[in-house]
Amino acid sequence: MFAMLSMFAVLFVLVVSIAAVAAAASEEQQCRGQDPMSSVSTFLGMELDYEIADRICCNNHRFAEPKGYHEWPEVDFYSKLDPNQETIFYDSVCGLPLFVAPRGRTFEEFVEESLYHGWPSFRPAEIVSENVIIHDDGRMESKCLTHLGHNLPNSGIDRYCIDLVCIAGTMPLAIQATTNTNNTTSSVENNTNTIEKEFDDNDGTIPASEFNATSYKSSAVENSGKYPKTKQRVLLAVGIIVPLLLIFAGYVFVQRRRKASRNNDKGVSIKTLSSDPEQQQPPPAVSTDAGTTNSDECEKSSESSTVPEN
Ligand SMILES: *[C@@H]1O[C@H](CO)[C@@H](O)[C@H](O)[C@H]1NC(C)=O
Ligand SMILES: *[C@@H]1O[C@H](CO)[C@@H](O)[C@H](O)[C@H]1NC(C)=O
Ligand SMILES: *[C@@H]1O[C@H](CO)[C@@H](O)[C@H](O)[C@H]1NC(C)=O
Ligand SMILES: *[C@@H]1O[C@H](CO)[C@@H](O)[C@H](O)[C@H]1NC(C)=O
């Protein structure tokens, strides 16, 4: 019995510390405390809702812009792109380059897949992998901690389901000025959200000023294994299977002790207890595929996102 209690104690400590780590991780300040650029609302001549951008990109880890937002009449995203060339998409908050599309497929394929799913959808060849974090649960954010969307693979290949409002940034003005080759950089620098200096030698992040789309090649893998179900399975394993195994082990342990003590005083009522020692029950069957799993978080999210969250 003592053994079982101590096992539960260990388990309890484990669960509490996991929860503490998770809580600490979620306290990182989203968008590093900044807001989306004001130019988001007029990105490529569209009328984007700045309030949605601020809420989804900087005050949210779960929800998405409304499904099909990219098709709304005042948005009409794909008509604003040049079908004959790649477009670089920049972070709505800090201007980091995040995606270059279409790449490795036609413009029509890019548009068709995005319309089918309801959000701009990018593939591994199209991500600036150094600038985007894909969390184990599939959630995606930029290195500036701007929420971007979720990785929701199709037929085994990662598909990044991304909120348009969070990739509606422009290259920071300071860099535009520099690339225009005149000496006016300092006058615009302080008017932008640019935090490029923080990235100089910071874990491989590529600032807009150093990004050459022509020569750039994504190093993202086709199948990162990071998508919403991964986390649920791990949690399920830790949360259910491990405790069951521990209980089972405790049960076996107690039975052994009983048996041992019975052997010590032989002859005393062997029969009364003989029915159960061999009958160790396997732990109750556990389904590894919880019914609550929703494979497409973006779609789930959009419904909820029509209600303001906070
Ligand atoms: C840069 O500045 C010079 C004079 O300072 C001016 O003659 C030139 O037109 C400017 N170039 C651009 C691209 O603005
Ligand atoms: C700024 O202008 C000066 C003099 O015209 C020139 O020597 C210098 O290279 C310029 N700097 C940049 C960053 O263009
Ligand atoms: C920009 O801000 C820095 C401090 O953050 C300051 O030193 C610099 O003078 C400012 N430049 C302009 C043009 O205001
Ligand atoms: C970008 O890369 C291409 C191909 O390597 C090269 O030709 C081009 O000069 C580069 N552009 C810049 C601005 O460095």
UniProtKB/TrEMBL annotation:
InterPro entries: Mss4-like_sf (IPR011057). The keyword Lipid biosynthesis does not apply. It comes from the Eukaryota. Coiled coil: none annotated. Residues 263-310 are annotated as: Disordered. Keywords: Membrane, Signal, Transmembrane, Transmembrane helix. Gene3D superfamilies: Peptide methionine sulfoxide reductase. The keyword Lipid metabolism does not apply. The chain crosses the membrane at residues 234-254. Residues 1-23 form the signal peptide. This is MsrB domain-containing protein. It comes from Fragilariopsis cylindrus CCMP1102.
